């Protein structure tokens, strides 16, 4: 066993993240290409990055809505479906005892999705409905964490349902963009971060989580977010529907 050379203030966080054994292998012994620990460290590092990214991924979308006072081109149903998936994912993984770095972004993304969904209702004159929906969502989330209210079989079933829910949460937004040929107030930062984040999450799932349901969900999330990212690129410079109509009218004059 090699003598640790890193000061405790730097070494202890590494031990907390990747474990004592892999810290000794990769850091103390400087065997940085040891396959098992390298995969583990990459997974933990990516997982931590995804969780941190989850804290800010929806903020550009939120600020864009606040600045424009508009929710044009944004699908409310997409946010509601994604919010349900966030709550179920968080509860399922927590109750299974998986590492927070493999699912923690669901907490922060869910909180941001809730705020954006409530803001969308407020800006479209449905503030009362927003208050009722917000309170209902918090009560549902609490129930998902309570095994006496939602049993183990039920939470597994619900998590299985998030697999089509992941796709369903993207379909309304994909359809809205396809129909309008325009991305509206949708944030490119959020869309691309979602795509790359889900791709990284697929890797961490393969390395750390031995759960077919989680793996299938990760694969479908990459596909759905990939379609949305492709639309963002394709319609990058597209004009708003009204503006396109106005430009077409001018050409016909």
UniProtKB/TrEMBL annotation:
Compartment(s): Membrane
Main location: membrane
Gene3D superfamilies: 1.20.1280.290
Keyword check for Signal: no
SMART domains tied to this protein: CTNS
Annotated Gene Ontology cellular component terms: membrane
Top-level taxon of the source organism: Eukaryota
Pfam families, per database record: PQ-loop
InterPro entries attached to this UniProt entry: MannP-dilichol_defect-1 (IPR016817), PQ-loop_rpt (IPR006603)
Membrane-spanning residues: 72-94, 106-127, 147-167, 188-207, 213-236
Keywords: Membrane, Repeat, Transmembrane, Transmembrane helix, Transport
Membrane topology: Multi-pass membrane protein
Keyword Metal-binding applies: no
Family that this chain belongs to: Belongs to the MPDU1 (TC 2.A.43.3) family.
Protein name: Mannose-P-dolichol utilization defect 1 protein homolog
Organism: Coemansia guatemalensis
Record lineage: Eukaryota, Fungi, Fungi incertae sedis, Zoopagomycota, Kickxellomycotina
